[in-house]
Design a protein that fits this description.
Layout: E1 2-3, E2 7-8, H1 10-23, E3 29-32, E4 38-39, H2 41-51, E5 57-60, H3 64-72, H4 76-79, E6 83-84
Helix pairs in contact: 1-2
């Protein structure tokens, strides 16, 4: 499982990209979003790209801030498709 940091800005997206690229595969990648307090466009773009990969992603325990940002960006139908409690 990959855990997102509390601040998911451009720097965090750049830092997480190599790990995400390595973990993406034929099965959904589990992503823990419970710690997210702030998320920016770069991280949202990275998550959309991962969600559209072969295996996709499953978001676990999305924080209220994470969910609100994804909904505000109207990306919930892509990023939140596979949400686990």
């Amino acid at each position: 499982m990959m855990t997102l940091p509390s601040i998911c800005d451009r720097s965090a997206a750049i830092a997480l990209y190599p790990e995400l690229a390595e973990l993406i595969g034929a099965v959904p990648l589990a992503i823990d979003a419970s710690r997210v307090e702030k998320i920016g466009q770069a991280m949202l773009q990275l998550l959309v790209s991962a969600a559209r990969s072969e295996g996709g992603i499953t978001i676990h325990k999305p924080s209220p801030s994470f969910s609100a940002a994804v909904i505000l960006a109207k990306l919930d139908h892509v990023v939140m498709e596979g949400v686990a409690a």
